[in-house]
TrEMBL record:
GO biological process, one term: regulation of nitrogen utilization
Protein's UniProt name: Transcriptional regulator
GO molecular function, one term: enzyme regulator activity
Record InterPro entries: N-reg_PII, N-reg_PII-like_a/b, N-reg_PII/ATP_PRibTrfase_C
Superkingdom per UniProt: Bacteria
Cross-referenced SUPFAM superfamilies: GlnB-like
Organism the protein comes from: Crenobacter intestini
One Pfam assignment: P-II
Length: 100
């Protein structure tokens, strides 16, 4: 099977950013995104998601390199200083590249 190169941009952040990030990723060129609830722990303690202010989400965007760079730069500049977030990029192969 033939796969086509794309980037998977993953942002794990405070749930309060969901609406803003949804608008941002579309405005910056992504065709779509997926949001899921996220829980875990790290240097700053644990996130259990039992209260609305304590929730984290994972936003995943499959896109071209340039779009991933634009979104990552925007998120780092706009949100990283004031919100807890982790951002990483992975190489992925997709079957229907026109959808991304």
């Amino acid at each position: 099977m033939e796969y086509h190169h794309k980037k998977l941009l993953t942002i794990v952040c405070e749930a309060v950013l969901e609406e803003r990030l949804s608008r941002d990723v579309r405005r910056l060129g992504a065709h779509g995104h997926t949001v899921t609830d996220a829980r875990g722990g790290g240097l700053h303690g644990s996130k259990h998601g039992t209260w609305s202010f304590d929730r984290n989400i994972r936003v995943e965007v499959i896109c071209d390199d340039a779009v991933a760079d634009a979104i990552a730069s925007h998120v780092a500049e706009r949100y990283a200083r004031d919100y807890g977030l982790v951002l990483y990029v992975s190489d992925v192969g997709v079957m229907r590249p026109e959808r991304f």
